[in-house]
# Entry
Amino acid sequence: MHKLLVVDASGRVTRSITRRLTRRFAEAWRAREPGGAVLHRDVGLEPPPPVDEPWIAAAFGDPETRSEAGRAALRTSDALIDELDAADAVVIGAPMYNFGMPAQLKAYFDQVIRVGRTFGFDATAAEPYQPLLRARPVVVIVSLGDGALNPGGALAHLNFLEPHLTTCLGFIGLTDVTFVRVGFDEFQDGRFRASIAAAEAEVDELAARLAGPLTRLAS
# Structure
């Protein structure tokens, strides 16, 4: 049974563009994968706790001697990593907030990027950092207030969202990433409507490709 993990990070609910498109993706995927499972993780409404000193001490300590308090500090991290590792495909709704990712989504990645679980570290190796998650396709649905923030646009140099997401995902082994972009939300004009229509078509096509036998999106 294939599993799809949907991660929503928008602070908006009823008017969220990314939520609308992640829901469309999940519905299209489920229609083609009736025996599959969709797991929804809403970090926009229920953000993970920020990393703190007990979390750091537990994560970087010896797992064999970890105390009950240490295990409790990592409980959310373990749950998030387990569901990410179990997914065959991932779709993330990530609106741009102040040129980067929402704080809720950053907190999510702080919980799942963890030594010994999603990446390995060997100080003596030529390449000390090694990803530990198996490869699987990831679709990231991005909403931007101005389409000029898209790659190739006049304001692309201010887009720190996509490079940050690509780096975080790739660091733990998720390098098969496809971005679906909606722009001009702040303008609400014909460019915005065209962008939404193009994103909907792309979401439908990607969901169809991911349903059934899963393949790399880059293939």
Observations:
- The longest strand covers residues 89-95.
